[in-house]
């Protein structure tokens, strides 16, 4: 466990420190172990200071989940790069199945959060917003990429493909993040790209280039 030294920081920085300490706690101890006292110890502050920024543990956890999801999406989106919509979609796929997105620690944190989604309306809303943001990103890229290929799809067709691709990437992400010999011996990037190409009905080789 890493304990941060106390420094007087601007409020925005202090909030980020507390969220970082919360995510560290969840990764190592699970949601139940990420108590206010534990987070305070890791952040090098008093429990009272945490309550100054977050009324209770629930608000701290929901803020941490929101930032966690936002960073996952940002990491995947960063893989898009520039170029055609097809190449940007391929970049998104690659980033979604490789570190730091596909990672054991990331999966551990996500698994702790996801257990609260059906019982906590606030967490459910954070989850819904995150899912919608990532699916919107996929949907936009799919629509643009297919148009580049000379295929005009209806909004409903684009939506359907985006939902399937999102589900496909989610499944691969979980399996890859869990690790194991089966996936360590496979070219998971190629599997992901070929699978998405099949969903889109385009040449897999072209998509991989």
List the SSEs and their pairings.
Elements: H1 11-33, H2 36-43, H3 47-53, H4 57-78, H5 85-96, H6 104-114, H7 121-148, H8 155-178, H9 181-184, H10 188-200, H11 204-208
Helix pairs in contact: 1-2, 1-4, 1-6, 4-5, 4-7, 5-7, 6-8, 7-8, 8-10
Mean pLDDT across all amino acids: 91
Structural class: mainly alpha
User: What are the secondary-structure elements, in order, as H or E?
Assistant: HHHHHHHHHHH
Please, how many helices? 11
The major β-sheet equals: none
Proportion of residues in β-strands:
under 5%
Low-confidence stretches: none
Query: Radius of gyration, rounded?
Result: 19 Å
Strand tally is: 0
Cα(first) to Cα(last) distance is: 43 Å
> In which range does the helix fraction lie?
over 70%
Overall outline:
elongated
Q: Would you mind describing this structure in some detail?
A:
This protein is mostly helical and 209 residues long. The chain is 75% helix and 0% strand. It contains 11 helices and no strands. It is elongated, with a radius of gyration of 19 Å. 31% of the residues are buried. The model has no long low-confidence stretch (mean pLDDT 91).
Distinctive features:
209 residues; mainly alpha; 11 helices; 75% helix; 0% strand; elongated
Write a brief structural summary:
This protein is mainly alpha-helical and 209 residues long. The chain is 75% helix and 0% strand.
